[in-house]
Amino acid sequence: ISAGNGCGHTVLTPHSGTLSSKNYPGTYPNHTMCCWLLQAPPGTSLLLAFGDVDLEPSEHCAHSSLLLTDPQTGTAYGPYCRNSIPSAPLLVTNSSTVTVLFNSTSHRSGRGLLLSYATSQHPETPDLPLTMCFSVYCPAGCKDIHGDIWGNPRQGYRDTSVLCKAAVHAGAIADELGGQVTLSREKGITLYESAFANGLHSKRGSLSEKRLVFHKVCCLLSPACDDVLEVVAFNASSWWHEVDMLGQDRAWVAERAALSTTGHSWAAEPGTEAAWLELDLGTRRNVTGIITKGSEQHNYYVTSYHVSSSRDGKNWRPYRGSSGQEDKVFEGNTDSQGEVSNAFIPPMVARYIR
């Protein structure tokens, strides 16, 4: 729960979350406040990681401050500001409830604050030293935090990338829930290509000595879990039968929807409001994600879409993602040139995909 006019990026879930002051990492505004109430499941305790506390210094932090209180025990932590920062980057509490209070008066400088938290069930933090292979717990809400990433899910990421933000881009976790990620630190490569995946843009970057490679659990059991699935048949609600200016026919049929198809692709009949494309995988398969691309020569592309799955081709279930509340809307392409990846977290088991 958060309240006040000084709240910035905030994602709070029972097991983890991320919060920041308004405008972070820009200068936080004058005369604002925000109060966050963090509540973990009974029987667990909260661990808070101070990513950044940069509030303009003042005596006893009287002008701008961060104060944490444990209402169950009456314990207070802080107040904190630039001349009175937390003694350690990780605060281990003995409570499942913590109140975080930020307030400001008149000031000239300061980035504000960035905090994340997890429960005692997930004591690992992203601040651990990087070994060759390691596992960390990423809190919910990493997608929109400050910081850049370089690379993509196929080649890996520069080791200077924001780790948990890269994990969302790679489809290793869902931003709404966070979670455990396993990754290795491997030899770097000359060039990291930019990509749009899971609602995030990565940057094109140059050589680094090391790179981060995320591993899905299924890959520990089967190296082929990220293979492209074979589509036995395509079907569609309709298709466009185009007659060009020279009177030549061009059929934008469903079979042309395969990603490797050259030339024109599939397109629904113009004016169709509820168009769908259906893929038959031949048998029930574990589907972990989807890649879309526009019709490059004709500058046509899909900007957003829903996904449904079926085991028999008759009964369809909309994909709702990790939250499970509403049908998930996937971000598609912004041009006809690049590929866009979206991960299914959790994966789907289905024969038919629409």
Automatic annotation (TrEMBL):
Q: Name one GO cellular component term.
A: plasma membrane
Pfam families, per database record: CUB, F5_F8_type_C, LCCL
Q: Which residues form the LCCL domain?
A: 88-212
- Which residues lie in coiled coils? none
| Keyword Glycoprotein found | no
Domain CUB positions:
7-120
Taxonomic superkingdom? Eukaryota
Positions of region (Disordered): 309-341
- Give start and end of each F5/8 type C domain: 219-354
One Gene Ontology molecular-function label: signaling receptor activity
Entry's Gene3D superfamilies? Galactose-binding domain-like, LCCL-like domain, Spermadhesin, CUB domain
**What compartments host this protein?**
Membrane
Q: Does the keyword Phosphoprotein apply?
A: yes
Checking SMART domains in the record gives: CUB, LCCL
Annotated protein name in UniProt: DCBD1 protein
